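We store chain and fold; example below:
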Amino acid sequence: MDIRRVNPNIRSTRQAESRAFYCDVIGLEVYMDLGWILQLGSPSNPTALLNLIEQDATAPEHPDVTIEVQDVDAVHAKAVERGAEIVHPLTNEPWGVRRFFVRDPNGAVVNVMAHSSRRP
C-alpha cells in the first residue's frame, strides 16, 4: 500500500489567529484555504502538513487525522471487508479528492483520501 502522507487535523474556530500563529511563529506556509479548512505546510518539506478545520464541508464528523494513499478504493474495500466502522462514505468531493472516514480501534476518525483524476 502506497501511503503518501499523514497529517493531523486540528479543530479551529479561530482560523485567522491560528494562521498567524502557525505561519508567523512556527514558520509554516499556507498550502490551501477553502474557508472551512486551512492547510499549512513546511516550506522545506511538502509532506509535513497541518490542517486546521472549522467544520468539515460534507462529513458529519471532524477527522482527527488525514492519510493520503495512492488507492483509496482499495483501502476502503479492506476497511469494509474487516468490518471497520465507516463514518463518512466513499465520496468524490468537489475540491478534487476522493475520500472516506473510518473509525480506528481507539475511536479516532481517520480521513483516508486520494487526489482524484479531475484535479490538475
